[in-house]
Amino acid sequence: MSKINKCLFPAAGYGTRFLPATKAMPKEMLPVLTKPLIQYGVEEAIKAGINTMGIITGRGKRAIEDHFDISYELEHQIKGTSKEHLLNDIRDVIDGCTFSYTRQNHMRGLGHAILCGETLIGQESFAVLLADDLCHNKEGNTVLSQMVKVYEKYKCSVVAIEEVPADEIHKYGVIKADELETNIYRVSDMVEKPSREDAPSNMAIIGRYILTPDIFDILRDTKPGKAGEIQITDALLTQAKKGKVIAYKFDGKRFDCGSVDGFIEATNYFYNHSKES
């Protein structure tokens, strides 16, 4: 199994929970303080040793490409002023990474979005990061960095999990698993958005994955599920039945920035953290 060199960012969704703000602006560009969600995700990938980013976009998402590009006019305007340093972080990201883009023409689920990224990934293991799941670890040991270490030990697909309240279980893919060591489980079953009664546990998959390249062939053979969407959970279940999916209960805090409540919570948390540091 190869080292994890590439990270895929599915970013083609409409962000309807944030309308009308997302009518003309990608939800991935919503700022927590002064930085868009997707930049937090890219910086997390960089800290995990990844420098090749593949982004799955859609109509109306050009702002993402522009963000990860040099703005000569802006840089010329603020060069030599007190504001010049404000672009340091994004320039470091641009200079340190390679970005590639492809489009998901039809909204057919996360599994389909990942399959659209096959040409950007090739035949190697890779990370997937959903930008609206914003994660933070105060010690700087990012969730993706933790997962890379798990992958290096077990050499198979890895999903990040956290325990969620029973009344939220229907929002997630939920696993059934046996504990191998502290916070590490081998998955035997998983269900996409089950009812509280049908859920095999309270351990839900969140927006961090490391996937082995055979996932692409599995996704091609995966039939659409709810709402005609191809679910990554269904594809991972195929691997799990062969004992090839590890679930990792990560160390850190996660914010569901796909919801208004989670977005506000993240904003307050990062604001307070910035005052402490």
From TrEMBL:
It comes from the Bacteria. Its EC number is 2.7.7.9. The keyword Transferase applies. It catalyses: alpha-D-glucose 1-phosphate + UTP + H(+) = UDP-alpha-D-glucose + diphosphate. One of its GO terms (molecular function) is UTP:glucose-1-phosphate uridylyltransferase activity. Residues 11-268 form the Nucleotidyl transferase domain. Keywords: Nucleotidyltransferase, Transferase. NCBIfam families: galU. Belongs to the UDPGP type 2 family. May play a role in stationary phase survival. This is UTP--glucose-1-phosphate uridylyltransferase. It comes from uncultured Campylobacterales bacterium. The lineage of its organism: Bacteria, Pseudomonadati, Campylobacterota, Epsilonproteobacteria, Campylobacterales.
